[in-house]
Sequence to fold (448 residues):
Amino acid sequence: MDSLFRFLKKIYFQIIFIALEVVALILAIGGDAKRNSVFCTSANFVTGRIYNAAWTYVRYFNLREENAVLMEQLSNVRRKSENFYVSDTATFRNQTDSLGKLKYRFITASVLKNSINQRNNFMTLDVGEKQGVRPDMAVVSATGAVGIVVNTSENFSLAISLLNNKVGISAKLKNSNFYGKLNWSGEDYHTAILHEIPNHVTLQVGDTVVTSGYSAIFPPGIPVAVIESFVRNSDDNFYSIKVKFTTDLKCLASVFVIENLMQEEQYQLEEQASKFVQ
Amino acid sequence: MDLRGYLKVLGIYALLVVVQVLVFNNIKISSYGITPFFYVLFVLSVPFEVPKWLTLCFAFVLGYTVDMFADTPGLHTAASVFMAFMRPVMLNILAPRDGYESGLFPYAAYMGMPWYLRYSVPLIFLHHLSYFLIDSIGFFSFYQILIKIFATTAVTVLFVVLAQFFVRRR
Fold:
């Protein structure tokens, strides 16, 4: 018994180390489950408050860039609305269904925290359940898609960034409607890979890739990336396409959270379809 | 060590977390997004008299706090705990012949810059090595991780050493 105590006294340091390290590794490797508990993330009360307080000062430094983006957005809207009055009604049909019922609702938000240097990046937004944000809503900036909401608290929400190897969004070529899956390449924050575009499609560097709207999260037609380079594979029938995000994910300030008001309906219908297959 | 000493440790902890979260986490150098992990200075600065098991617990709390702000559950925690585990090893290797006198602190102002570099650089390297290895689980690219480990170590060491010039010997 005595020698047991002496032994324990000798290795207590190692035991404490292993215990703490195991707890940390469980958190790190089972990270996905833990991210859903607000306690571990920046969407919780304390961290959210501190980020909010800091943000009121820091956002002045970004006003210049933010202004430029807003001006660009304004000019886009103006161009679209002029089109609308002249002839083209299609642009606005994007936002509503054919009966003119509202399909997408936009909630403006500020990015409180954003990372680009992890394997799996997330961002914290200053809107939460009180403002009507729920998981599975799209996050877009003035220049393109940036992420998907995964978790919300009362006043904050956590969104998974496109810079995340667990996210793939359904995207299509703007000019030909061929669709595929878009994933982050994991290399740097500009580049993503577009999969599943068949070899017979004609591509050009600079072609725009937009959201397909098949997923019920993103509305169709939101720009995501432009083609940077592509290689025709001889061993399978699909291109390897490198694309560059249209949004600079390193300097995000103002974003929109988009609520698809008919998401539930679409999910229910699609669930029935999967029953037929079985 | 008396209560005042522990209050000082608490103060350093709070200061470093705030500086890391509000300043250093916003630094993203190059397209790799290199961020200095300045907060590891806390593990380096724990006084010699603090028992090593308590340093482990401090490191755990420190890492957990930084993780909470950075949305990286467990990552900084695991790396910091590992760093605190290796610290006594480094201290043993670098110990003066008659051990560490009381009244000395692990700062360059007390121990000299050559000692401080030999003490801090390996520990910072081990911290970053474990951080990026755990981070890369399931998504491994050898070349990229190598760049990240060395580049981040370089910038962290730079800021940690710069911070030493703000500490005066009493």
Observations:
- Chain B has one domain: 3-164.
- The helical segments of chain B are 3-22, 41-45, 52-70, 75-93, 108-111, 113-135, 142-164.
- The CA atoms of residues 75 and 134 of chain B lie 7 Å apart.
- The radius of gyration of chain B is 16 Å.
